[in-house]
Sequence to fold (823 residues):
Amino acid sequence: MHLIGNLSIYLALALSIYAFIIFILGIYKQDQRLVDSGKAASLIVFIMASISMLILFTALGTSQLQFEYVSAYTSTDLPILYKLAALWAGNAGSLLLWTFFLTMYTAMVVYSRKMKNNPLTPYVAAIMLANTIFFYLILGFVAKPFVLLDQVPVEGRGLNPMLQDPGMLLHPVTLYLGYVGLAVPFAFAIAALIVKNIDAFWLRMTRRWTIIAWMFLTLGNVIGGYWAYTELGWGGYWAWDPVENASFMPWLTVTAYLHSVMIQERKGMLKIWNISLIILSYALTLFGTFLVRSGVLTSVHAFGDSNLGAYFLIFMALAVIFSLYILMSRYHLLKKDSGQFESFFSKESSFLVNNLILVGATFAVFWGTIFPLVSEAVRGTKVTVGIPFFNTVMSPILLALIFVMAVCPLIAWQRSTAKNLRDNFLIPAILSLVVVGLLAGLGMRAAYPIISFGIISFMLLTHILEFYRGVKARRKVTKEAYPVALYWLMIKNRRRYGGYIVHFGIALMAIGIVGSNFDTETMKTVPKGGTIEIQDYVLTYEYLAQRSEGINDIVFANIRVTKNGKELGYVQPERIFYGSWEEPSTEVAVLGSLREDLYVVLSAWEKDERATFVVKVNPLVKWVWIGSFVLVIGSVFAIWTGKYGNTTPRYTGPQRKVS
Amino acid sequence: MKKVIAALTLLLLISVIPAYAGDQYDFKSAEFKEVASQFMCMCGCGQDHFECNMQGCGLNDSFKQEMKEMMDDGLTKDEIKDYYIGMYGEEILTAPEKKGFSLTAWILPFAVLGVAGVGIVFVIRKWVAGYKEEPILFEELTEEQELEDEIVKSMIDEERKKYF
Fold:
């Protein structure tokens, strides 16, 4: 098995090099047969990557402890799902997953029907294969997944308990789908520059790819947050850890890109900016990988003891230098359509402000992330940049972003008059002020949440108004009933209304994020039968018990919960003691509603059965998860083809000899 | 004798005061949170000393106890902060200080945003100035009319596809 595994890696490496060279030769000689050979090789590389994955899955699933990777990340008692998910628990496996996705995307692009006769195809394929070669070099010579041990151990080291969570099954996979997905628009952008095809065609070709990558990045981040919330026991979901920041930064830049491309599509402007954004986004994915693998910054996510960071740094530098060189060499072409704006008050301007804030936010996160290194280099003193810094710096920036999101949809293209602005914003502004007044009336005194909820409600209201205006306009023409008009309005304008649904999702998430900052916490040691009171909740600690699951022992407390005297049921926070791991892990008990989560952690216990609990009431956290669902629905809605969907255009430009 | 009794009583009172002060703060009080949350736990949990709940984190328990004792002794938040910075350096803090070189951490993001904002204003002004108004051949559509127009066009387009 290990022979086939290694063979699949080295053969794929050889084939990727072959495909890369043959594509270049095919382009150079304008020979379609060579390009076709490259396409076939790309497909075989994908098949090889699938075989490697299959073999590693089999080795993990069947506990082939002679493999170093299997023994390092699994044990025989591990549930089968986690045995398989251990594929992305370590360096070699996770890089194999990355490579698998990369080869999958390459094969999909190369064999896409939409790419037929498209002269960009060999260029895109060659760029993606250059990435594949790098990853296969790492898999073949640095982080090898199929290394055999000299002696077969009796038992594996097991999987870190924190990774034994359903989040482990989804978070890395979705995040990688997002990360790797960004290689596609990047490759298209560079290919378009090389062939000097710099109109908006490549943008339209990659719109769906980019949204898919963005959606997976979002999902990856949110699932990671949910995982942290339920698994780590600190009651939060985002700690501004360097590695979290690493996945947030490309999310911000891609969000900026998805907005600014609309100006290029509509007015042919911002070409340099859009290409720069996609290069930056891709570079940030590599930077993130560098952070995770290098250990230069302290992070709870880092894959320790690895020198892989240096390789990623070199590759990132090469990718950026190459991209910038191509960009600069085409600068004169891109500069041609510098364009015009009709007015300061237009949708175009608001998109630019949106981009300014998003890229500014990226810079703020980047600066905060690398500041410990900067400080050490300048002063010789390492500083820590943690949650208080990021919360302070990012809160006003993200609030400004939500405000721009509120204004953007209702502001007209080209020119917005004072009358337009008044007609569009007066009612939402008044209603938002009512919301602010209500919150103040209900006893909310802190300025930040009041301002935040005011801006969020303003955003929600402008979007509702936008839907209403569309329905009204449609009804005027078609005389349809309201729901029918709404349905057709959305179905026939998927991109626009999908985007607005995404905005709704962001607003709901923002409600959760602002609300969850106002948590209440208590820690108390209570005897059996004792109670803990927090806000309107009374928790009665009934008993402590133990059960076994496989070789793991689970200690749990049974707690009865009432709120304002009303029975809410029982919660059972746990501590799991692993047979193959020193550190026990926390299993938080959450009793949630749309208003708040009751969050209970079993912290410690004594021989006399007194137990210590950390109890939190986290307001509105559920809205973070609900908002993310809405966001995914909006993304899928926007890219859904269907009868009226925005399909990816076919290439209809001048024919070339190879495609 | 009265003076001696008075002095002894005073002494007794003084010795009793810290004992009361010792019960002032518990690990979950707001004041303790304010103090403890400014220090990063170095056990690798990525949390501050208030939040760290890593099992077996010996560091956090002793830190908390020490901080509580200092608070009970009447030290202020800043005095405790200075004490730990003197011992461990700025690295112990959860956020950079707002002075010296560390101040750049706080200022630079907003400075960059401000400069970029000014740049964007200039760029838009340039683009607006370069705008050449074309002669109006048709009456300008309001935004609502534009939307209606779009809908009508899409319906015509659909009909066209159906029959041709």
Remarks:
- The helical segments of chain B are 2-21, 30-36, 58-72, 77-88, 103-129, 143-163.
- Residues 100-163 of chain B form one domain.
- Chain B touches chain A through 53 residues (CB under 8 Å).
